[in-house]
Amino acid sequence: MSVTIKACTTNDLKELQELSIETFNDTFKQQNSPENMADYLNKAFTLEKLNEEMSNRFSNFYFLFYKNNLAGYLKINTGEAQSEMMDNDSLEIERIYIKKNYQKHGLGKHLYNLAINSALDKNKNNVWLGVWEKNDNAIAFYQKMGFSQTGSHSFFMGDEEQTDIIMVKKL
Q: Which of 49, 124, 139, 142 has the highest CB neighbour number within 10 Å of its CB?
């Protein structure tokens, strides 16, 4: 398998924006109204917002290439960049997204392993994430990787309040 992972820089913002919109839309458009999807996508993935996220020293973005084609990305957070404040012993996997035509090839596991290794390198004791309660494939993947549910929090998709399951893996 020809997989390459590279850290993203601000030079990658436009490509990151396009990939973010494509993968988020493909993952969630069937379960959400077009209005709520458009509202969310137009706020969450602006170049300004992505630049702000990328400029945070506690966040890291990585592109995954499969056979030299951009196939997905990872965003991890520590410290104050975490989307929900956990302790300083935690690393958050905020986003693992793989393009639709590259799913079911084991590519997500490469990004997952990078996140786990980053946590170990940073001497973190826990890795956590939030996953939509209706995203059965992602929940099954994370359970298989040793995560367990510890709680939940609200996530707003446009004007609709949804529930994300908080899952944690102890390292």
A: 142
